[in-house]
Amino acid sequence: MKLLVTNEFGEAQPRFVDLAFSGFACFLVAELGVNSPKLALPFALLGSTAPIFFARHKNEKRRTALSTIWPELIDHMISGLRAGLSIAETICSLSHRGPQESRKIFEEVETRLKSGEDLTSIFTWMKQIFANPIADQVCEVLDFARGSGSRDTSLTLRTLGDFIRSDIAVRGEVQAKLGWVKNSAVVAAIAPWILLLILSAQPTTVAAFSTPTGFMILGIGVLLSVIAYLWMGKVGAIPGIPRIFAGSEPDSKKSAKGTSAPQQPSEVQSGPPASRFSRVNEHINTPASHVARVNEHINTTGSRFSRKNRLEVGS
User: Fold this and answer.
1) Please, which pLDDT band fits residue 34 given cuts at 50, 70 and 90?
2) Cβ(23)–Cβ(44) below 8 Å
3) For 284, which DSSP code?
4) What is the pLDDT of residue 261?
5) What is the b/e burial string over 168-206, where b = at least 16 CB atoms within 10 angstroms of the residue's CB?
6) 167, 177, 204, 266: least CB-packed within 10 angstroms?
7) Please, which contacts does 119-128 make with residues 24 or more away whose CB atoms are closer than 8 Å?
8) Rounded Cα gap, residues 51 and 41, in angstroms
9) Is residue 28 part of a domain?
């Protein structure tokens, strides 16, 4: 049985059967260890949430990988444009020249182009599939160049690629510094249950937690463990770059939601192409403000935990 079924673009999607199978497996293992169904039930509840966290972790790694490959993709685009290829031909060539992580996406782009779909709708679809502000900026530059025939597309892409490389480097350092927050959250959530599993070797512990009061304490412990883990993950999260050029939803998501009112284009996407292109340049030329917000978040998080440590030492 395969857990965490992925869709055509590699996004993990846990099913109900995955949650049930994971919880039942944890229940069997815990019941064999503690020899008490009531004491094994909290382990089953915690184990049933494992596919959700694994899917979130896998999707986060996928999004990170797709965001870090854009400097290489931009280099391929610049090479194609300088070789005399059109924008459509340059994008289609990425299905066999680009990184492995994005080839399936550009294969779908090539299929859509061959079926007669226009580039504007394809750029909107790409924004939703990549789901990161870097893809939004690149698609806006290419869409403007397609509509106005700009001769400085390669230069603009080169400048954008330099800013993207610096931003990826800064975010990598920030993630390395804040990685201890997520690791401490995992240890803090798992440690009490490992201790309970060890203490359950004593019959008195099993008898104490088999009572209604003990079972209620275990239920409260499960709830608090989940809340604490989610809160620690929120504290250690890095503020994301706002997606000011995000387009409307792709056709697959629209069909999944059924008939709904069409989305009105946002203020950023409306207006003449020149004004949109000026907003692209304004956005990519001011990465320092985002880096400052990230550094401020790091300092705030560090001071918060330092005050907590001082209180614990003083107590």
Assistant:
1) confident
2) yes
3) H
4) 38
5) bebbeebeeebeebbeebeeebeeebeebbeebeeeebb
6) 204
7) 119/87, 119/88, 119/143, 119/146, 120/146, 122/91, 123/247, 124/247, 124/248, 124/250, 125/247, 125/250, 125/251, 127/243, 127/245, 127/246, 127/247, 128/246, 128/247, 128/248, 128/249, 128/250, 128/253
8) 17
9) no
pTM of the model: 0.62
In the chain, the number of structural domains is 1
The CA–CA distances, whole Å, from 11 to 125, 135, 136, 243, 256 equal 16, 17, 19, 20, 16
Kindly state whether residue 61 falls inside one of the protein's structural domains.
no
**When comparing pLDDT for 62 and 312, which is higher?**
62
What residues contact residue 124 under an 8 Å CB cut-off, 6+ apart? Answer: 139, 247, 248, 250
Q: Which two tokens stand for residue 87?
A: 């924008």
Instruction: Compute the distance between CA of residue 265 and CA of residue 236 in angstroms, rounded to an integer.
Output: 33
Segment 116-172, tens digit of pLDDT: 888 888 888 888 888 888 888 888 888 888 777 667 788 888 888 888 888 888 888
- What digits encode the pLDDT tens for the residues 181-232? 777 878 888 888 888 888 888 888 888 888 888 888 888 988 888 888 888 8
Q: Token pair 């497996």 is at which residue?
A: 25
Residue 287, domain member (yes or no): yes
Domain holding 136, by residue range, is: 69-238+246-253+267-315
Per-residue tokens: 47: 């184990």
Residue 94 domain-assigned? yes
Please give the Cα distance from 150 to 292 (Å, whole number).
33
